[in-house]
Amino acid sequence: MKWFVEAKTTEAADRINNLLLLLGVVPEWSSGQVDTLGNRHDVCEVYSYQNARRIHTVTLNDSRVQVNYWKRDETSGAKLESARYLVIVAPGLKVRRQMKYKGAKGALKKRATA
User: Fold this and answer.
1) What are the residue boundaries of the structural domains of the chain, listed by start?
2) What is this structure's pTM?
3) According to the CATH classification, is domain 2-98 in 3.30.70?
């Protein structure tokens, strides 16, 4: 399983680059990665769940840093998969974490009739 992040802002890209360098990972951004719907994205491979989780922690602490998370199965070709859930699969560990989305999640209220 490979892990990628997509920076929504240049500030997010800068913070991700700095964090990965502190972790000893050279950030390599790939442009035009295709997802399962055929859309293209500029993403950076973060190589492990731990690195993705550290970046997620940065996004929680700094609202200016916004990212999308992607995963790619080694055997399923070159398509990126998933934007809603960050699914972690590691030896003896399977955790499902819901990513934060802005916007209304509750059911719409019924309109009052006149």
Assistant:
1) 2-98
2) 0.59
3) yes
